[in-house]
Amino acid sequence: MAHASSDALPALRSYLRTTAEIASCSSLLEWDLETYMPATGAEHRGRQLELLAGFVHDRATSGQLGELIEEAARTPEAQEEESPAAADLRETRREYDRQRKLPRRLVEELAKLTAEGRMAWVAAKRANDFGLFRPFLERIVALKREEAAAVGYEDHPYDALLGYYEPGETAAGLSKLFAPLRDRLADLVRRVVARSPAPLDDFLARGAPAAAQEAFSRKVAAEIGYDFAAGRLDLTAHPFCSTPGPSDSRLTTRWNEAAFLDGFYSVLHEAGHGIYEQGLPKEAWGTPCGQAASYGVHESQSRLWENFVGRSLPFWRRYAPLARECFPSAMRGVSVEALHASVNVVQPSFIRIEADEATYNLHIFLRFELELAMLSGDLAAADLPGAWNEAFRGMFDLTPPDDARGCLQDIHWSMGSVGYFPTYTLGNLYAAQLYAAARRELGDLDTRVARGEFAPLLQWLRERVHRHGKRYLPRRLVELATGEALDSSALLRHLEGRFSELYGI
Amino acid sequence: MAHASSDALPALRSYLRTTAEIASCSSLLEWDLETYMPATGAEHRGRQLELLAGFVHDRATSGQLGELIEEAARTPEAQEEESPAAADLRETRREYDRQRKLPRRLVEELAKLTAEGRMAWVAAKRANDFGLFRPFLERIVALKREEAAAVGYEDHPYDALLGYYEPGETAAGLSKLFAPLRDRLADLVRRVVARSPAPLDDFLARGAPAAAQEAFSRKVAAEIGYDFAAGRLDLTAHPFCSTPGPSDSRLTTRWNEAAFLDGFYSVLHEAGHGIYEQGLPKEAWGTPCGQAASYGVHESQSRLWENFVGRSLPFWRRYAPLARECFPSAMRGVSVEALHASVNVVQPSFIRIEADEATYNLHIFLRFELELAMLSGDLAAADLPGAWNEAFRGMFDLTPPDDARGCLQDIHWSMGSVGYFPTYTLGNLYAAQLYAAARRELGDLDTRVARGEFAPLLQWLRERVHRHGKRYLPRRLVELATGEALDSSALLRHLEGRFSELYGI
């Protein structure tokens, strides 16, 4: 085997960076689309994004990239196990192979279908009429099966789709990981719900001016470590975090003036994403080692700050005084303990994005199983509403009153995002295991949180997670960070501990 | 000569539209750079803009475009004098020839340098330290000289740059047009200043909350015809209007809470630009006939609304009641007549963008002459502060107290915009001639303005100016619109009339 040129790796990385630079223009255009663009700009924005997507696709599937990969793969650095070079090659090759295997016709059909599907989903949800969305879902599932067949898989077509969001994961691996969690969580929820009355949380429905919510949220987000000097916070309909450049990671939110903490928790969540993006190694920007490890790992960072830190008693010991300052009326007569209990009320409900920490994962398992069944062909799209409601009854002993609060509630399938939902629960699992390890290693984390000393935790996450980018597959990353293989015990301990204490069970 | 295919013109226009779509991505990136981007994002933004500029340059200089031009030039439509097709060919060919002469390296270097230069200018102006900006200015002037040499010129390197902003104009042509204006204006200013005391305008230094200024400005901008549903108003350091798509034209401004009308006049100015953009024919978007005729014609539209309409007595008859509502404290005891006089006070001052209508053009002549000297090599960038101050003294008998109020006040050179300043005075000249013609044709324009009936004037501008895009060269457009060749008589009549009356001279 001929020895590769010493320029091979830099040449590959430079090629990848240029592609990422084009894609980062799309990020900014999309951020603007969701924040400031006048509605009349939508048609033109669609053409701009299509054009840039075409440039990116051409570069991502070019013969030139194939040659750069082959050349770089022959370098000594790429042979070293778990080296950054090996990771760059592994990730670049996976994505290149995947893109090359997708027929152009399929990519274009999916783009068109999901653009229309998204509109149909909006209409169907608004009209509470699954029939409006059904034909699109049928075609989307059919095309995703085609996609899976084109990409290839060993065991289940789901694996070909899941692997895009969470490299290294399979349906079988997830089923094994989720099974004990499912049983224990269902049991926990039953026991908690039996302990009525639940803690009072009616004061969460008290309102506060958007400006006060913004002041509070900005202060907290900055204190946990989100760098506003390299970021922003803007308004949008559906909050997200966007990173249009290596030193430019932006949060978005919406304020609900009728519920004074809604927007805050959304900011805390997005700030977790933003903090991760701000901690990725800038010198590797645009290459795999400069990118987030996976969707699940990204979600672990948002969940860690939102739930593990932000719904803890020490956190509210720290921030209740500021909350009283910002929300004098909403906070009247509310003790720290009552506040802590109220943001942790467990209550089975229909809507995933409104779910508490204990029931949340059950919503995910339901979607995971339905996705598997649709992908394997065991469940026809037409039968989704019935299957959804039956599974929901089995899980929560409740029947969704309509499809808008049932199988039509999420946007994901309409966008062709099949295999995405499990990354939310993976995020919870990673977060739990990471937080438990940080707690072991950093000593009295609760006291630090109660004092607003977040730097040690942030530093620990920077060191163990952020700086590695995609160097390790997610499970390996968590194992290296925590010293233990991924399992569900840390999340169960966290949830059982938190809710046993709060509910006295 | 073979007959061209009937597809030749559509093919050329489709090619131009795609190029414009890429360029429109840059517009949005630049808008964001000036409004919302964190400062830390500057370096990456520079790379993004450089990359897109490269794509645009490739398309704008491709052999394919050359062939499309040649093919389209042979169509019968392109032979018709002053037809849209002839204009599309004339403008496309001029820009193609110019671009083909610019080395790719130069284009990319300029894009990157000016992105950094803008940030350096901001820092230099803030710190009042020319030294921070000097190295950038030196490199920018050097590159602009390279650009002029590459594009080619007959008489002065300036012509190669000026022609980009104002097709058909030359340094010699401007000097001839400006000379009588310069003398008569200097004389007018002398006579006005001699008539001390000036009308009282100290109440203009009364403050008002930004929110009140915004409410007032939005209301007026909407009433004169700016469509906020297809636009926006955001904050920036140096107000501008940006059009990142055919139905997306955005205004920016800044509020000075210590002077209640400052921001308003800036909005009125930018709204004039936005109204022009909103009136360009959308079906021709991306081709010359869908684009503004020139920078000068663009400026004529902003000046017409800002000065000819917005500083008139009938305008304030209409809007004094709203001003009293929005600014109860600042407007206390201020009559309509006093307000009208105060927004027309003539007072030599240091800052161009704060200058009154009479002295404004003198500021332009100063910059025009310094640009000529820097471009010809007679003036080194390092000597700019001294040369500026000397020229300023010669013109106004005043010495700028520092560079922030001297040669650092404008953003233009930091962006590489050399040859741009004269378009402001051209704008005043076009506006004066257009407004005089509209007044002749529309009958009692003052009464209409006093009633807030702006539609007839807007319609006249749509018909005579906006809908034509680049169909005619600027001087020809003004001649067709007004029935008279361009000269300085209308502007002089306007200024001498307005200030003679106000100052009783």
In short:
2 copies of one chain form a homodimer. Chain A is built from 21 helices and 3 strands.
Question: What does the model show?
Answer:
The structure is a homodimer of 505-residue chains. Among the domains of chain A are: 8-149, no CATH class; 202-348 and 428-471, Neurolysin, domain 3. By secondary structure, the first copy, chain A, is mostly helical. Chain A has helices at residues 8-35, 42-60, 63-73, 76-79, 84-101, 104-127, 130-151, 157-165, 171-194, 210-224, 262-279, 295-309, 313-326, 336-342, 357-376, 384-396, 422-442, 445-451, 455-464, 474-482, 489-503; strands spanning 231-235, 241-245, 248-253. The radius of gyration of chain A is 23 Å and the shape is globular. A three-stranded mixed beta sheet of chain A has the order 1-3-2.
List the helices and strands and how they pair.
The structure is a homodimer of 505-residue chains.
Chain A: H1 8-35, H2 42-60, H3 63-73, H4 76-79, H5 84-101, H6 104-127, H7 130-151, H8 157-165, H9 171-194, H10 210-224, E1 231-235, E2 241-245, E3 248-253, H11 262-279, H12 295-309, H13 313-326, H14 336-342, H15 357-376, H16 384-396, H17 422-442, H18 445-451, H19 455-464, H20 474-482, H21 489-503
